[in-house]
Amino acid sequence: MMPQNSSVSVSAACVGEYRKLKIKRNIIIFVIGTLILSGLGGVLLAGKNDIGGLVFIMGPILMMVILRTFGRDGWKNAGLKLNFRNNNQWYLVSIIVFPVTFFIVIILGILTGVTSIEVSSASFLQLFATGVVAQFLPRMFFALCEEFGWRGYLDPQLSLLKIADVKRHLIVGLIWAVWHFPLILSTDYTDIPLKFFLPVFTIGVMIAAIVYGQIRKYSQSVWPVVIMHGIGNTVAWAIVDKQLIVFKNKLFANISPESVFTIILWSFFSWWLLKYNKKLISQNE
Questions:
Q1: Max Cα distance, the chain (Å)
Q2: Is the C-alpha dihedral spanning 8, 9, 12, 18 positive or negative?
C-alpha cells in the first residue's frame, strides 16, 4: 500500500501540472486572440473603416477579461489595486519618464542637426498645451486597453510559469511589437521603409517592455504603466499632431520606440531597473 503522504504528494503534483497546462493554454489563446483581432482591425482600417481602430485597440483588454472571467484565470494577479503605499517613486517615474526621454532625444537631435523646432517658443507652449488637452483622454483610454492586456494579463501569467524577468519581458515585447504590425501595414504609420522600420521597431518595443515590466513588477500594480504609457502617447501625439518639431531622420532621432536615440536611452534605463532588482534581492537575503 502507498504511504498516505506519498499519495498526497503525487496528487499535489498532478494538480500543479494541470494548473500549468491551463495557464499555458490560456496564454496561447490570449496571444492568438489578440493577434487575430489586431489583424481584423488592420483589414478594416485598410478598407477605410474607422471601426478597425477600435477592434485593434480593444483586443488586449477584451482577451484579458474573457480569460480572467470565463477562462478561470481569476483576477488575483491582474494588478488592479493602486498600491500607492511605498510605491510613490514608481508613480513619479511613470509620470516623468517619457517627457524626460523626449526632451533628451529632441535636444540630441537638435545638437546633431537632424531635428528642428518649427515654431516660436511662445507658440510652441500654447500649441503643445492645446494638443495635450485634446489627446489626454483618448490616449489614456488606449493605454488602459493595451496595458490591461500586456501587463495586466500576459506578463503576470508568464510569471506564474516561473519565467525569468528579462526573458518574460522580451516575450511580451515581441508579441506586443507583432501586434502592432497590422496597424503599421494598413495605415501611414511611418514613411521609413518597412524593411528597416519593422526590425528596429521590434527591438525598441522589446526594450520598452523590460522597462514597463519591471515597473509593473516593483509596484505590483498595472496603474503606473497605464499612466506611463498614456502620458507617453499624449505628449508624443501633441508634438506630432501639431507638427511642432520636424524629425529629419526619424530612424536616428525620433520620439518613437524605433528611434536609435530612444533605444539607447531605454537600454540604459532597463539596465538600471534590472540592477535595482538585484539590489532588492540581495537586501532580502
A1: 87
A2: negative
- C-alpha cell of 202? 521590434
Task: Count Cβ atoms below 10 Å from residue 87 Cβ, excluding itself.
Answer: 19
pLDDT tens column, 103-157: 999 999 999 999 999 888 889 999 999 999 999 999 999 999 999 999 999 999 9
Grid-cell match 536609435, residue found: 260
What does the alpha-carbon distance between residue 234 and residue 191 come to, in Å, rounded to a whole number? 21
Contacts of 226 (CB under 8 A, 6+ apart): 140, 143, 144, 147, 148
Q: Between the CA atoms of 157, 208, 258 and 249, what dihedral angle is there, to the nearest 10 degrees?
A: 170
Instruction: Identify the H or E element spanning 69.
Output: helix 51-69
Residues with Cβ < 8 Å from 119, sequence gap 6 or more? 127, 244
Q: Residue 130 is placed in which grid cell?
A: 492645446
DSSP 65: H
To the question of pTM greater than 0.90 for the whole model, the response is yes
Cα angle 87, 284, 228 (rounded to 5 degrees) comes to 25
What are the grid coordinates assigned to 126, written together? 500654447
Q: Compute φ and ψ for 148, nearest 5 degrees.
A: -65, -25
How many CA atoms lie within 13 Å of 258's alpha carbon, on the beta-carbon side? 21
How is residue 143 written as a grid cell? 493605454
